[in-house]
């Protein structure tokens, strides 16, 4: 399966928000070792550390035959054997089990803290200070908790193995051992909030956008694989779309506009009376009007800066909808000239010399639209 690359637009004005998180402590266990029972694990530990079996008798009240029976059980499954000196010792497999035991005990003793994204379900590092609900800025959006808390009481919740693997905690394990490691999370009951800044948003599809390259930087972000399979929660992204009629105004006609209608009438009845300059002016005026008939009503997306040839296939916001993220802030006049040249060329189907023209537009009533977007596509990339 090839790498999936998603395309994003960098927002001109980052969106600040609060993301709900669960704070938890991660612990490990090894399935095969846990199945052995506590006493068998203890014997593996004693043999692995080099302590004699005399220590077992000193610290337990077990009879010798009970210890011998457990050692023979370890022998039967290939973890222990009698050495040439008649002393019990671990086999190669047993020593690997001891190494796993030591690794897991050391890991669990550190009580690694993690933050669980309450919207995407993804694990995050515990490197960002969190806030309680009473400390949130009232003017900043606080996203609702979308994950099911109970799922994180099960072994290996969400992307826990992927997360710990990225941090290098599991690099000493073989693929077979990694499959048998169980990850558990004990999370705190309180709901906390993590400040985030969204700087990227998925771009509109090409058939909605009038231009391929928008005024803002597009970035290609490789999907790390399987991210969207963790939790399919969606976010409601609200944005404003402004309908507008673009007008190409030929600046060469500005001094003569008051007389153009009279020139046109004279052209119809006595063209020989018009100078070459007047005839040229009428040609420019005719072309200006032709352009105006061709250019359709277009739509400006205030969040991404895209100019659209139709209203996006998003639902128009209804009164009872709650928007979780609001994009916006861009004005039509903020678009650079190079972007407008691309818009005009696409609308007319040909390139023209824009040096002779200035752009004007009439705007209609902004339309609020909502798009349901997979939460991972917004919160999983480029956040702080």
Give a description of the structure:
The protein is α+β, with helices and mostly antiparallel strands and 384 residues long. 31% of the residues lie in helices and 28% in strands. The strands form three sheets. Strands 1, 4, 5, 6, 7, 8 and 9 form a seven-stranded mixed sheet that branches. Strands 10, 11, 12, 13, 14, 15 and 16 form a seven-stranded mixed sheet that branches. Strands 2-3 form a two-stranded antiparallel ribbon. Helix 2 crosses helix 5 (92-110). The longest helix has 19 residues, at 92-110. The protein is rod-shaped. Mean pLDDT is 78; it is low at 205-219, 224-232 and 316-321.
Report low-confidence residues grouped into runs of 5 or more: 205-219, 224-232, 316-321
**Helix coverage percent:** 25-40%
Oligomerization category of the chains in this entry: single chain
- State the distance separating the first and last CA atoms: 30 Å
Strand tally is 16
Note the topology.
Blueprint: E1 5-30, H1 31-36, H2 38-49, H3 54-59, H4 64-76, E2 80-82, E3 88-90, H5 92-110, E4 113-117, E5 123-125, E6 141-142, H6 160-166, H7 175-180, E7 181-187, E8 192-202, E9 218-222, E10 234-250, H8 257-269, H9 276-294, E11 297-301, E12 307-308, E13 315-316, E14 325-326, H10 337-348, E15 357-363, E16 367-374, H11 375-379
Parallel strand pairs: 1-6, 10-14
Antiparallel strand pairs: 1-4, 1-7, 1-8, 1-9, 2-3, 4-5, 10-11, 10-15, 10-16, 11-12, 13-16
């Amino acid at each position: 399966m090839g790498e999936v690359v998603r395309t994003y637009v960098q927002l001109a004005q980052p969106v600040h928000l609060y993301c709900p998180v669960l704070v938890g402590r991660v612990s490990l266990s090894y399935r095969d070792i846990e199945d052995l029972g506590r006493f068998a694990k203890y014997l593996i530990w004693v043999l692995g550390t080099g302590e004699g079996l005399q220590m077992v008798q000193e610290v337990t009240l077990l009879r010798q035959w009970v210890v011998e029976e457990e050692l023979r059980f370890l022998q039967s499954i290939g973890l222990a054997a009698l050495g040439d000196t008649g002393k019990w010792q671990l086999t190669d497999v047993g020593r690997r089990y001891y190494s796993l035991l030591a690794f897991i005990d050391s890991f669990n003793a550190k009580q690694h803290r993690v933050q669980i994204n309450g919207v995407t379900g993804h694990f995050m590092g515990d490197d960002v200070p969190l806030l309680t609900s009473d400390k949130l800025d009232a003017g900043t959006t606080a996203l609702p908790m979308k994950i099911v808390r109970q799922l994180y009481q099960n072994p290996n919740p969400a992307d826990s193995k992927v997360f710990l693997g990225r941090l290098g905690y599991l690099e000493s394990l073989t693929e077979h051992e990694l499959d048998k490691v169980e990850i558990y999370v004990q999370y705190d009951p309180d709901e906390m909030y993590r400040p985030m800044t969204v700087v990227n948003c998925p771009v509109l599809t090409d058939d909605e956008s009038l231009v391929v390259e928008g005024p803002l930087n597009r970035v290609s972000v490789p999907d790390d694989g399987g991210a969207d399979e963790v939790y399919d929660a969606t976010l409601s992204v609200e944005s404003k779309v402004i309908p507008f009629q673009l007008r190409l105004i030929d600046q060469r006609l500005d001094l003569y506009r008051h007389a153009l209608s009279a020139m046109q009438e004279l052209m119809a009845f006595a063209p020989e009376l018009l100078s070459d300059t007047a005839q040229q002016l009428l040609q420019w005026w005719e072309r200006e009007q032709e352009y105006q008939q061709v250019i359709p009503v277009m739509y400006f997306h205030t969040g991404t800066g895209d100019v659209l040839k139709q209203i996006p296939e998003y639902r128009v916001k209804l009164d009872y909808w709650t928007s979780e993220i609001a994009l916006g802030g861009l004005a039509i006049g903020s678009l650079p000239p190079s972007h407008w040249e691309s818009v005009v060329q696409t609308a007319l189907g040909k390139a023209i010399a824009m040096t002779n023209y200035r752009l004007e537009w009439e705007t209609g009533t902004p339309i609020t639209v909502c798009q349901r977007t997979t939460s991972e596509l917004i919160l999983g990339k480029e956040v702080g």
